[in-house]
Amino acid sequence: MDAAARALELRKYADAAAGCAKCRLSEGRTQVVFGVGDPDSDLMFVGEAPGFHEDKQGYPFVGQAGKLLDRLLEGIGLSRAETYIANVLKCRPPGNRDPGPDEIESCEPHLFRQLELVQPRVVASLGNFATKLLSGKQIGITRVHGQEQQVTIGGRSVLLFPLYHPAAALYTPAMLKVLEIDFARLPALLGTPAEPEAPAPPAIDPALLGQPEPAVQLGLF
Ligand code: URA
Question: If you compute the radius of gyration of the chain from its CA atoms, what whole number of angstroms results?
Fold first, then answer.
């Protein structure tokens, strides 16, 4: 399938998934938050689940964690439109609680189909839930962040690159520093040199990022 056909298939799949009622999360959601970005990107981010703002707006990573993700991307000369962004769960868990194992199991076919159709070369898993699901190992993000690993997903080999979840880094400056350092390796992993004029990743002061979102997501690292 060429890129145009995959993009069309992804659109059709997203339309069908908009009515998904495979688990209890369909009862409390405003809408399914499927994914956003370039359907042919070499780089896909996989977060945990939509939060309050994502549920309202219908796009992943549009709250404070998303703003941090945008700034990290800017630091390596990329915009979110050049990547594809999705989550393990497509519907917001009530009160931003952790995803349940049964919810992950119900929802994972959506993510696997996205991976199959976008065909990214590098998948950056953000936080524990995405990393454990995509690595197939119960090893936490603290141990594996910044260490790329070749994994086979849906018969395709991709480079999985686990990163701390931006929502966790928002409140922990030391973690933000590590996230910036790990993030800076993405251009090399994508096989493209960092833009010569691109500045070093900005040192982001968490205090400038605003107040925590209403329900802070816990259990992210
Ligand atoms: N956290 C996530 O994991 N995903 C989002 O879309 C927003 C916050």
Answer: 16
Give yes or no for a contact between 52 and 63, defined as CB atoms under 8 angstroms apart.
yes
For the record, the structure tokens of 158 come out as 């991709």
Whether 87 lines ligand 1, by a CB cut-off of 6 Å, is yes
Domains defined for the chain, CATH in brackets: 3-190 (3.40.470.10)
Ligand 1 centroid vs 167 CA: distance in angstroms? 8
Instruction: Take atom 7 of ligand 1 and give the residue whose Cα is closest.
Output: 61
Q: Is the CB of 61 under 6 A from ligand 1?
A: yes
pTM of the complete model? 0.88
Structure confidence at residue 155 (pLDDT): 85
Q: Cα separation of 219 and 80, whole Å?
A: 25
User: 36 phi and psi, to 5 degrees?
Assistant: -150, 155
Residues 183-210: tens digit of each pLDDT: 999 999 999 644 454 455 556 665 655 5
Q: Is 201 within 8 Å of 72 (Cβ atoms)? A: yes
